[in-house]
Recover the amino acids of this structure.
């Protein structure tokens, strides 16, 4: 009996010893042990029941954090669209001298105006620096003195007293004055130097200028009797420009003489088709005599944008009168916040803005005097 008990005791002792060795082996090879000796062990995300912890995103800045209110931004203020024709030998209703044009540019520069293209303006892509006012320069008819050139020793020389020459010179002198303008052309010989048409049209679009439609025949559209007549006039100019600039989109229109076609025919100023060619204008310019509403103002009308005649004669001082007006009434002037995707408006003028018209922009309405 004692012998049997001794055998049972020895057997139990061996079993307990093996169990202890196995436990020690498990402890030595456990994940916890591996992490302490070798660093954490990568886990298969599909096997892990614990979801990956992600950092919460930092809240985006709001316009209140970065718009500089000390410049008194007002993006529903008025904008001047200046209308020029001839740069010539005298100051008259439809012509100004090179000296007078330089004087205009100097005035605009020194009084914190900065040129912007009409296309950018009407699309609400206003990138005018903070504290400055956009101004739009336009030239009708494509006179030679708008863009005159000659060749000298195999090099093309731009007349320094032509509109393009003066603007280029001014931009070289003042790099922060982003000179740009839209030239409204008609006919087969814009700028009146047939041999240089190709050069001039390409030069304009390669150097920050734009080309607009002024009908093919400088037509008096008020006498139009059919939709066909109106569409033919606008489409033929587009056809001509695209013969030289196949990829260029002519998308703004200035009405010759400021005389619109009668009745329902006016709708064809915005879009139409002739001989398989269609056109789509984003803006129609009048002759007008006062500043435009801001594109953010509820009253802005893409189909009828007024212009101010740039002249300084005794009989007509439109531009000088409006320069003086904004000096005395700066709160009516558009002042940029410097951010194209933000519309900043003082509270007392916020009723002029409909935020629903600009769903892709942030609207910042502030109380004047709070900075």
């Amino acid at each position: 009996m004692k012998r049997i008990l001794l055998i049972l005791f020895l057997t139990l002792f061996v079993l307990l010893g093996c169990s202890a060795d196995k436990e020690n082996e498990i402890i030595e090879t456990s994940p916890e042990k591996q992490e302490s000796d070798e660093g954490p062990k990568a886990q298969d995300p599909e096997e892990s029941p614990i979801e990956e912890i992600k950092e919460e995103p930092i809240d985006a800045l709001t316009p209140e954090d970065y718009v500089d209110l000390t410049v008194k931004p007002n993006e529903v203020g008025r904008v001047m669209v200046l209308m020029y024709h001839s740069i010539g030998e005298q100051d008259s209703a439809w012509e100004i001298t090179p000296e007078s044009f330089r004087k205009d540019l100097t005035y605009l520069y020194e009084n914190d105006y900065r040129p912007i293209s009409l296309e950018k303006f009407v699309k609400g892509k206003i990138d005018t620096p903070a504290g400055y006012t956009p101004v739009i320069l336009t030239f009708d008819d494509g006179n030679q003195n708008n863009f005159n050139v000659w060749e000298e020793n195999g090099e093309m020389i731009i007349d320094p007293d032509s509109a393009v020459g003066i603007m280029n010179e001014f931009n070289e002198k003042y790099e922060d004055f982003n000179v740009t303008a839209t030239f409204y052309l008609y006919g087969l010989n814009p700028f009146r130097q047939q041999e240089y048409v190709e050069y001039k049209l390409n030069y304009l679009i390669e150097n920050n200028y734009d080309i607009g439609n002024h009908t093919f025949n400088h037509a008096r559209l008020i006498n139009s009797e059919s939709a066909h007549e109106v569409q033919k006039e606008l489409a033929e100019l587009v056809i001509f420009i695209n013969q030289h600039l196949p990829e260029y989109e002519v998308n703004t229109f200035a009405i010759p003489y400021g005389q619109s076609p009668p009745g329902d025919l006016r709708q064809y100023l915005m879009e139409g088709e002739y001989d398989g060619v269609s056109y789509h204008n984003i803006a129609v310019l009048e002759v007008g005599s006062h500043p435009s509403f801001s594109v953010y103002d509820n009253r802005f009308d893409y189909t009828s944008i007024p212009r101010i005649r740039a002249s300084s004669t005794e009989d007509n001082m439109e531009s000088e009168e409006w320069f003086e007006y904004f000096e005395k009434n700066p709160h009516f002037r558009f002042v940029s916040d410097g951010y194209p995707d933000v519309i900043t408006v003082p509270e007392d003028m916020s009723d002029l803005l409909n935020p629903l018209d600009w769903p892709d922009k942030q609207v910042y309405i502030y109380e004047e005097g709070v900075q």
